[in-house]
Amino acid sequence: MSSVTTAAPAYRSPPGLLHTILLAGSVPLFLGALLSDIAYHNTYQIQWSNFASWLIAGGELFSGLALLFALVNLLRARRKAGPVLMYFLVLLATWVLGVVNAFQHAKDAWAVMPGGLILSIVVFILVCISAWLGLAARADARVDASNRVHAGGVQ
């Protein structure tokens, strides 16, 4: 009989299903905003700037709600360091820069470039990193639970 020893998980309760849906849903919204900004940069059709503004607003809503869930998970964590804190800080930076990007896109359409495009690139990279960190925590919790079940019963 083999024994499996696992370290204590970083999360007391890993990100839940709604949390992961909100987190993963913010990625395509910010990607759409980035692609709209690229289209606006190439064509100067003002409607692309309007699309980007709406997509940023949706991404901000989703990432803001995910940020609330991340804050609750941070407060409930045994150790308030490591991956739990890193995930929260990256998601917070994503949300704050997303707000700055929304303000940039609220300007006149001709004044959006190039700042809006640069901010959209940075926000998209940050949301991908935060999704990676947040979804990895959920996957780690699933693997940990699976190892406990295979080690001889649920603990």
Structure description:
With 155 residues, this protein is an all-alpha fold. It contains 4 helices and no strands. It has helices at 17-43, 46-76, 83-105, 115-150. The two termini are 17 Å apart.
Distinctive features:
4 helices; 155 residues; 75% helix; 0% strand; mainly alpha
Helix and strand pattern: HHHH
The proportion of residues in beta strands is under 5%
Largest sheet entry: none
Radius of gyration: 19 Å
What sort of overall outline do the alpha carbons produce when their principal axes are compared?
elongated
Annotation, overall tally of beta strands: 0
| Mean pLDDT level | 86
Task: Give start-end ranges of low-pLDDT stretches.
Answer: none
Give the count of helical stretches: 4
* Relative helix content: over 70%
**Class per helix and strand makeup:** mainly alpha
Could you give the distance between the termini?
Answer: 17 Å
Instruction: Please state the oligomeric state of the protein chains shown.
Output: single chain
Per-chain topology:
Layout (H helix, E strand, L loop, with lengths): L16 H27 L2 H31 L6 H23 L9 H36 L5
Helix pairs in contact: 1-2, 1-4, 2-3, 3-4
Summarize the structure.
The protein is an all-alpha fold and 155 residues long. The chain has helices at 17-43, 46-76, 83-105, 115-150. It has four helices and no strands.
